[in-house]
Prior knowledge:
Blueprint: E1 5-9, H1 13-25, E2 29-33, H2 36-46, E3 50-53, H3 62-70, E4 80-84, H4 89-98, E5 102-105, H5 110-125, H6 129-132, E6 135-137, E7 140-143, E8 148-151, E9 154-155, H7 160-171, E10 177-178, H8 179-187, H9 195-209, E11 216-219, E12 223-226
Parallel strand pairs: 1-2, 1-3, 3-4, 4-5
Antiparallel strand pairs: 6-7, 7-8, 8-9, 10-12, 11-12
Amino acid sequence: MSKNTVLIVEDEEDIRTLLTYNLGKEGFSVTAVESGELGLQHAIEDHPDLIILDLMLPGMDGLSVCRALKNSDNTRQIPIIIASAKGEEADIITGLEMGADDYVAKPFSPKVLVARIHALMRRTVQQPADQSDVVSIHELEIDPVKFKAKLAGEKLELTSNEFHMLHYLARHVGWVFTRYQIVNAIRGEDYVVTERAIDVQIAGLRKKLGKYADYIETVRGIGYRFKE
């Protein structure tokens, strides 16, 4: 069986060495680079199974790398974990808005990072059958296998987080979910996120839905649901 491949984009040599060693012990095939430009190049050419991405990089910063990868059909589905010393809420929200799949603030335990890598890979390897069916409701069509969504016949340009959130809500029309039920369903119970971060992502999703924004209803004091 071939090893899962991980691309590390980190400018600090000590951290690259530490992560390469620990991930190698866990059976991953690791490539480590020190700049955003090299990270983007390797991601496009090698298409790794997962990327660990620092934000503060020389030249092209981590958010720009994340944005470029998530805006491309060829690399959009590669899971990205941002690992950065910038642990403020605003930075976490920005990373999520760019399409990052997880966020780990430095300093972090290599064991914790490895556990989150395994959890993220388990969630992205294969979807259950009932989650792989095309969802067609109102003017919306979502194909989770092809990772494509259309609204009134027009393609929706969504981040990975927005896509999974919309798919989850649309599969459960009329059901009311708390913010944490939503994030647990699409990212796992081990993911730590603030309520504001989820509200920001819902707001971004509604903006992209345009005149159909009311498909996602706010249930005051509870959370959100997809309109019946």
